[in-house]
Write a structure and sequence with these properties.
This protein is an all-alpha fold. The protein is 68% helix and 0% strand. The chain is built from eleven helices and no strands. Helix 2 packs antiparallel against helix 4. The chain is globular. The relative contact order is 0.14. It comes from Streptomyces nondiastaticus. Residues 22-108 form the HD domain.
């Protein structure tokens, strides 16, 4: 629980005031992560911490490259000396390699941060893509449409998210399958 409290307070300090909507989204992603605890075992707290921290790279204090997974992960590694698994999850959250490729940063992301276990990568992707910008539950289809609508279909984010949609849907299906196999009611 100390890990979760630390992560929550750090994310709050970086996002709540300058980016209240991003903070609401992060809290919603954390809530989704908490709902997955029955299928995550010993990694439940790790995922919940990564969930609330996943978007800290948007904080005006942290922006360096302008690519929030990389900026957030570098801050967690270099300044906070955070658990490397949390850093990895933040660095690679929600198909970040595809967006990094669009931005010419894929090599930097791959060289600096290893991928975490697929089960956790899927779980964080699931939590992010089942949460609206305001922190409410949604589904991956609507979330992708919302992102394309917000950024525009020809933007870097619009192009990336459409490329990532098959993996977003597949990860969501894998997580839903794990929940069903464990007899856990769908959290949404």
């Amino acid at each position: 629980m100390e890990l979760i409290a630390w992560a929550h307070e750090l994310a709050k300090s970086l996002l709540a005031e300058p980016l209240p909507r991003r903070w609401a989204h992060s809290c919603g992603v954390q809530e989704r992560a908490r709902s997955l605890a029955p299928v995550l075992g010993d990694d439940a707290a790790l995922l919940e911490a990564a969930a609330v921290l996943h978007d800290i790279g948007y904080s005006p204090r942290l922006v360096d490259t302008g690519f929030h997974p990389l900026d957030g992960a570098r801050f967690l590694r270099n300044v906070e000396h955070a658990d490397e698994r949390i850093v990895s999850l933040v660095a690679h959250h929600s198909c970040a390699l595809l967006e990094a490729e669009e931005r010419g940063l894929r090599q930097a992301l791959e060289e600096e941060f290893e991928l975490e276990q697929l089960q956790l990568v899927d779980a964080l992707l699931y939590c992010d893509m089942n949460t609206t910008p305001d922190g409410d539950p949604t589904n991956p289809t609507d979330r992708v449409a919302e992102i394309v609508g917000r950024y525009g279909p020809d933007s870097v984010v619009g192009r990336f998210i459409r490329r990532a949609e098959p993996e977003i849907q597949a990860a969501s299906a894998r997580v839903n399958g794990r929940l069903a196999a464990a007899g856990v009611p769908h959290p949404m």
